[in-house]
Design brief:
Elements (H helix, E strand, L loop, with lengths): L1 H17 L14 H18 L1 H4 L15 H6 L16 H6 L14 H12 L19 H7 L25 H7 L2 H4 L9 H13 L5 H13 L1 H13 L2 H14 L18 H12 L4 H10 L8 H10 L1 H4 L10 H21 L18 H12 L1 E4 L15 E2 L14 H27 L18 H20 L10 E2 L1 E4 L6 E4 L7 E5 L21 H8 L7 H14 L20 H13 L4 H9 L2 H4 L6 H6 L12 E2 L2 H11 L21 E2 L2 E2 L4 H6 L14 H10 L29 H5 L18 H9 L1 H17 L3 H13 L5 H15 L4 H20 L2 H4 E2 L1
Antiparallel strand pairs: 1-4, 2-3, 5-6, 7-10, 8-9
Helix pairs in contact: 1-2, 2-6, 10-11, 10-12, 11-12, 13-14, 15-16, 15-22, 18-19, 20-21, 23-24, 23-25, 33-34, 33-36, 34-36, 35-36
Length: 876
């Protein structure tokens, strides 16, 4: 029966492909009738009979990630590498396997020698395989007329500067921004709120621009100047804040939210990205330098292809491309083609949402449901990234089946915390690696045989019999860590500075459109290109390059209707509290319309005309009268415009997680303003991450790996030690290493996708696996419990109390100073009376020798209550 099916397949295939034998993929010679006949009569039947059961979509599985039921699957290979290298037997793993060299396939016994000889002939003739030339064509329902009509949608048209109505806000407005906003009040049936008090405004400015509360000097200078000239007070403070390095730390964190920055892979196997911190620092530097936004975008998309004046700039360009390499990755995926398709999908989706504010990723499986983006446009962009190597690091292990190289930087990174190795240390690591690899071979042999071999590693440092499966897993993890450590230095033990990023592949190629996005169902090839709805002429990309440089230039062009609009909307949102387009990542038809379209266009044009300067745009917005509006509740104003779409009042904003933590550090006098070296995660190297931090093997378990004898009859197979290592990373099971207190700003905290620091997780930190344009804002019991019980909060309360004691001996003045530092204002008479009553009741009959200690404790409790209040967490 099987032979009849194979014969039928051969006849059908020959009839189908004889008619198209003169056609081939772009850049490839067409297959001859003889080549097709050889494949269909000799190779396909053998693959079906001996391989499809374990290595095809129609079989029981695709083991080892190898699919042999398509030409693309054979060329891509599995997790061990390419199965077929045309004309090269030595590098073709399929040949290695069927001749029973290092690999042995099929496992039930060798193929007949005549079949093996046929495979030899086939590979040497170039492995002709007509299965990629299926002739399947998917026709889009999005027509050329739909695309042309779509170009008239408001966000797909270039920004236009319109004239402001002459009567708009003439006796109120301070700027063009104000007049455009004032023009909408009449239609909304509302009037503007009063300006906020100077005490609120100075706090609003410092938190918005640098993410910190005002210092006493800043506050005093602002309040003094504002009595004479509020505009000058604002201008002076804004100029000061924009020049502080804390500006880049604050605004760089906003960008990291949408760049889905993290220092680990996330998903099923959360493994460290020990070089990710370089991208974080690049972003912070770029904001502090006020790098033009269009240049900022170009460097992140194609920095490796841009000219560089020196090695320092070349470093920057290479690190910038980490934007494309940072995304979450399913490193346990065995199928390299599936992994690559998902990787490219994540890159296309992230880039389009972050820079263009549209989700092209929706068109992977079908035409976009709302916007005129056909499925072919998705694969036009996917081809650019399929022609790109994504380099993120890692060593092969059971938890990382898809490692990659890293990019070696042309000059050493001064911020690196990595230490050199002596020649003796390096030789010792190499020797240990060799021994561990030999032990792993033995453990896997025992695993296949189902025996307990002599000399396999066990737990607790005792020579006991062990489970080979567990031993292999432990050894695999240790070998991965040893490899990563050895590869982090050169031959002399000197650290090598690496970064994550992208490079052009050795050969550019177009993507094939996939039916329903499935890698096993390829259709026609799609030329690389951009979104048709945003271009007015056909795109021509070089055949010898990926097209990323051209993509970067197109994204950063003043002719692109979306890039400037999307960014100024993000800046507006962070300062005003809500975007002109309320969904900053969705400027398409399914997204909300802008509340002030003329203002958005005005800001976009001003942004481009001012050299794409983020700092100038920030200055322009915060010096507007709109920015000063009070958020005080007014029933008439609220009823007329409950969502505040007309911007007739200020928006109260909850401080984000980083600002809450940084503010406690700042007012308590504990904040370390200088940035740290590298990152905590970098110090662990390449390692999987458990619930409590990176899982470097604990010393006791490493010691057990040196066991040389086994004892018969024991029942301890090391499982409990393995579970302990997996759960705690070899540390105290109650302590997450990411919770170890450091006093640097929160932007420098380690960001592991599946193990965030507690303060970030509790206060709605951006999900690091997603593009997050707007963070959620919740008010939960968990947050209250954090402020009540967390050791960090208690420590900061003690530190602030200590600062107050050192400031003055006057009990009343201590309370006043606490309110000034935490709230930016003095206490009301009611608040002062309540605090004094609290102190009197607690200290009433306390003995003199205990009084000072109790006063400090009460002062710390007062500080904690101020930290826990809504006023501390909310900007009015």
């Amino acid at each position: 029966m099987t032979r009849l099916v194979i014969a039928a397949w051969t006849v059908v295939a020959l009839v189908t492909w004889t008619s198209s034998a003169t056609q081939g993929d772009e850049g490839e010679p067409p297959l001859s009738v003889d080549q097709i006949q050889f494949f269909e009569s000799k190779i396909r039947p053998a693959l079906i009979e001996h391989c499809y059961r374990c290595h095809s979509a129609d079989g029981s599985s695709i083991r080892g990630g190898l699919a042999v039921d398509s030409r693309d699957g054979l060329l891509a290979g599995g997790e061990s590498g390419s199965a077929i290298v045309p004309e090269n037997l030595d590098e073709s793993l399929l040949w290695n396997a069927i001749t029973y060299q290092d690999l042995r396939m099929p496992p039930g016994g060798r193929m007949p020698q005549t079949v093996i000889d046929d495979f030899k002939t086939w590979i040497e003739m170039g492995a002709p395989d007509p299965r990629a030339r299926t002739g399947v064509v998917i026709h889009s329902k999005v027509t050329a007329e739909d695309i042309e009509q779509g170009k008239q949608f408001w966000s797909f048209r270039p920004p236009v500067q319109k004239d402001i109505p002459e009567s708009a806000g003439l006796d109120w407005a301070d700027s063009t921004i104000d007049r455009w906003v004032a023009d909408g009040w009449r239609e909304a049936g509302t009037i503007p709120a009063a300006d906020c008090e100077p005490e609120s405004l100075v706090r609003r400015l410092t938190f918005d621009l640098v993410g910190l509360p005002p210092t006493p000097l800043q506050q005093q200078a602002f309040l003094t100047t504002s009595k004479r000239d509020i505009d000058k007070a604002i201008a002076d403070l804004v100029d000061e804040l924009l020049e502080q390095p804390q500006f880049g730390e604050r605004w760089g964190r906003h960008w990291l939210d949408i760049a889905r920055y993290a220092e680990s892979s996330g998903k099923e196997s959360d493994s460290t990205f020990p070089h990710a911190w370089r991208y974080r620092n690049y972003v912070i530097r770029s904001f502090n330098q006020d790098k033009p936004y269009n240049r900022f975008v170009m460097e992140q998309v194609a920095g490796d292809l841009l000219p560089a004046a020196d090695d320092a700039q070349w470093n920057e360009h290479l690190i910038a491309t980490g934007f494309l390499a940072l995304g979450p990755k399913s490193l346990t995926e065995q199928n390299p083609r599936q992994f690559q398709a998902d990787l490219v999908d994540e890159q296309v989706d992230t880039l389009s949402r972050v820079v263009l504010g549209v989700s092209v990723g929706c068109a992977r499986c079908h035409d976009h449901k709302f916007d005129p983006i056909p499925q072919s446009d998705y694969y036009a962009m996917a081809g650019i990234f399929q022609s790109t190597q994504t380099l993120y690091g890692g060593s092969r292990s059971l938890r990382n089946r898809q490692p990659s190289d890293l990019i070696a930087l042309p000059s050493a990174d001064r911020d690196s915390a990595q230490k050199p190795l002596t020649r003796t240390e390096l030789d010792a690591l190499r020797q240990e690696l060799k021994e561990r690899e030999a032990q792993l071979v033995e453990a896997r042999r025992a695993q296949r045989a189902g025996t307990r071999p002599e000399g396999t590693p066990t737990s607790n440092g005792n020579p006991r019999a062990a489970n080979p499966v567990l031993n292999a897993a432990l050894l695999d993890q240790l070998i991965s860590q040893l490899n990563a450590r050895i590869q982090s230095v050169d031959g002399q033990g000197k650290p090598i500075s690496f970064c994550m990023g992208v490079q052009d592949a050795s050969q550019a190629r177009n993507a094939r459109l996939l039916v329903r996005g499935e890698i096993e169902q390829p259709a026609q090839e799609v030329p690389r290109g951009f979104l048709q709805v945003l271009t007015n002429a056909p795109v021509s990309l070089p055949k010898n390059g990926s097209g990323r440089l051209e993509l970067a230039r197109w994204l950063a062009s003043s002719d692109n209707p979306l890039t400037a609009r999307v960014m100024v909307n993000r800046i507006w949102q962070h300062l005003i509290g809500q975007g002109i387009v309320r969904e900053p990542d969705n400027f398409g038809a399914s997204g909300p319309s802008p509340t002030h379209p003329e203002l958005l266009d005005h800001l976009a044009i001003e942004f481009m005309e001012n050299g794409w300067s983020i700092k100038r745009m920030v200055r322009s917005i915060v010096q507007s009268r709109v920015y000063r509006l009070a958020s005080t509740y007014d029933e008439q104003r609220f009823n007329a415009d409950p969502e505040n779409r007309a911007l007739a009042r200020g928006n109260a904003k909850r401080l984000d997680a980083e600002a809450i933590r940084d503010a406690m550090l700042s007012v308590s006098g504990q904040l370390e303003m200088s940035p740290p070296k590298a990152s905590l995660i970098a110090s662990f190297g390449s390692a999987p991450i458990g619930p409590n931090g990176p899982m470097t093997l604990p010393p006791g378990l490493i010691s057990a790996l040196n066991s040389t004898k086994s004892t018969a009859g024991t029942t301890d197979d090391g499982a409990s030690m393995m579970r302990s290592a997996m759960r705690t990373g070899g540390r105290n099971p109650n302590v997450n290493v990411f919770e170890i207190v450091n006093y640097h700003r929160s932007v420098y905290l380690p960001i592991a996708r599946n193990s965030l620091p507690r303060v970030l997780d509790a206060f709605d930190f951006a999900e690091p696996s997603l593009v997050v344009g707007v963070r959620e804002t919740s008010n939960t019991a968990e947050q209250a419990l954090y402020m009540l019980n967390n050791p960090f909060v208690l420590e900061m309360s003690d530190s602030l109390a200590r600062r107050l004691v050192q400031h003055t001996q006057d009990p009343r003045e201590r309370v006043v100073q606490a309110f000034r530092l935490v709230y930016g204002r003095e206490p009301t008479s009611h608040e002062m009376a309540a605090v004094q009553q609290f102190f009197r009741k607690a200290t009433g009959e306390t003995k003199a020798n205990k009084r000072e200690e109790l006063v400090f404790l009460l002062l710390s409790q007062l500080c904690q209550s101020l930290f826990s209040s809504a006023e501390f967490r909310i900007l009015n």
